[in-house]
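Methods — Computational structure assignment.
A single polypeptide chain was analysed. Its primary sequence is given first, followed by the predicted tertiary structure written as structure tokens.
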Amino acid sequence: MTAPEATSDVPATQKQTLKSTSWRDSLAVYLQPRVLIVLLLGFSSGLPLALSGSTLQVWMKEAGVDLGTIGLLALIGTPYTLKFLWAPLVDALHVPLFTQVFGRRRGWLLFSQLLLIAAILVLAMADPARSPWFAAFAALLVATTSSTQDIVVDAFRVESLPESEQAAGMASYVAAYRVGMLVSTAGALFIVSGFESSGLARPSAWMWGYVVMAALILIGAVTALAATEPAQSKGAEAATHAQNAAERVAHAALGAFSEFLTRKDALAALAFVVLFKFTDAFSGTMTAPFVIDIGFSKVDYAAIVKGVGLAATLIGGFAGGFVARRYSLAASLWIGGVVQAIANLSFSWLAHVGVNQWALAFAITAENFTSAIGTVIFVAYLSALCRNPLHTATQYALLTALAAVGRTYLSSGAGYVAQYVGWSAFFVICVLVAIPSLLLLAWLQRRGHFDELGPVRI
């Protein structure tokens, strides 16, 4: 029975009461302690990504590193692509002392966050002008420890939230993740500019900017301390207590892979996972260098990203949730895939306009709004693919790692493409690279792939 039919005989005053109660209940879910814990962990997961990506690219651009080398920095994201290889270790192994004191998931959370803070501090000490390759190595350490934190947070989110809070937890996680990314892009650039304005030399300003970013990871560490170990994790620990370490790792790894690969059209689905966000990744790799290259200052870029960019991201997240609730999963993916590709044309237009604050604001708004829509819908699809609770953490790590292929390997030549064709043509190419994913989407839809997944609730 549909909602209108269910309330057709209810008086108007009672309908209003039901509606108000529904809104209060919806808000109350987002204020549950477990959901708030997941929200803060989402911020901690989103923060490090740009520190080894777009923010590092701006640093290298100011240090005089050539565009080709900056484009190759996309390869630093390799750990995000390969994290499924050690996800079974996180599922199966104990961290000495940490696991005994804090538990299976919380122990890994704290351990990975402390390693992440140390890696960011190492990157802060680098000097891209003198030794770009040492800076790249330090950034690789950041990416490795960050992707390990992602593995644990994803597992913690799935295991700690009851079914009634999963939707709110996922929405909160995605929103906070994007906010964390904005803090480490616009926020970091503001901080570095502030240090420069206070009289610090540029290399020192960048160093202290990264030190501040390392300190913000403590938000995740404090959250892990305040959280409680998921009951499902305790159950898994008890169930595998009799197994040795090797048996636990083998069970987590082989079970996840074999269960997924036996599904119909599994390889096509994996290819779609790789390609869906490629249009976003290909343009995103060069967005910051493009804005700086055409004449904007990093303060201009940071101000617009932190202002309209943040607002567009949050509104886009809500819009993505609305689309996913209103339409089928396949239709939602069509909408998300098309709008995030077309948004790249705003940067092509900006290349023609030149240094214009309103044009930059429009382009950043379009990018963040459509990317947030695509991300929420894409996360819903990845969650729908993880149907076996015994292998959720490892399977989710596998899928998100594959999604990072576009950001890491396929995007690594973006700098050379931009250098060869120019900025305006480059962003037109960013639209065209979305075509393979849309063709796969059409093929999977025709094969009934999305019907087999069943309804997906955001």
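Note: The chain has a mean pLDDT of 82.
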